[in-house]
Amino acid sequence: MKTIGLIGGMSFESTAVYYRMINEMVRQRLGGLHSAELLLHSVNFEEIVRLQKAGDWAAAARRLGAVAAGLETAGAGCVLICTNTMHLVADAVQGSTGAHLIHIIDETAAALKAAGKHRPLLLATRYTMEHGFYADRMAALGIDVMVPDADGRALVHDVIFNELCQGRIVAASRERLIALIERAKAAGADSIILGCTEICLILDPADLPLPGFDSTAIHARAAVDFALGADHAIKAA
Fold this sequence. Notes:
Radius of gyration: 17 Å
Structural class: alpha/beta
Low-confidence stretches: none
Order of helices and strands: EHEHHEHEHEHHHHEEH
Helix content: 40-55%
Oligomer: single chain
Strand content: 5-15%
Number of strands: 7
Distance between the termini: 24 Å
CATH topology of the largest domain: Rossmann fold
Number of domains: 2
Largest sheet: 4 strands, parallel
C-alpha cells in the first residue's frame, strides 16, 4: 500500500470527512482491520483565508508547496489538496514535489464523463465559481460548467464560510440550495458538482433534483485507487 499525503485544514470540517472516507474505502476493499497509510498536514485555515481575500495566490502556493514537499519527504507517494478552491495553485504545488498530485478537477471531470454528464451546475466558493481556473480546466476536459447567478453565488459562498466551515448545518440553507438547483435544472443543467469539499455536509448527492457528484468522495476514491493499485480499484458508479 502506498502512502497518501493530505494537505488539510481548509477547512478541518471537510478534512475530517476525507480521513473517514479514505479509511472506510480501504477497509471496504481489503476487509478486516485494514486502514490507510496516510499522512496529514493540517494548516491554519485563517491564514489561508487571509491570503485568499488579499488575492495573494503566489504566497498561498508557496505555503502549500512547502507542505507538499514535507509530505513527500515524510514518505507520501501522492498528495491531495483537500479543497477545491486551492486547486487554483495546484500546478505550482505540483512543481514543489515529486509526489503525484491527484487533481480534484480532473477526477471530477472523469466521473462526470463516465456518467454521460456534460452540463453540470457548480456549487463552490466564489473563488472557485468566478476565477477561470475551474471552468477552463473543465472545458479542456469536455465539460461545460454552469454557475449560479450573482445572488446564487453569494448564497453558496456564505453558506460555505459562515456555516459549513464553522460546523453549522442550517436546514433553511439546504432548502435555498435545493431551490437554486431546481432553477439550474430548468435552465438546462444535467448534473450538480458539489465543488466545495464541505458541501457534502449539507447536501446528499443521492438526494438532489439532478444527479450529484461529490468532489470530496471522488477525490478520496482516487487517492485510494492510487494507494492500493489497479487490483483494488473501484470506479465510480
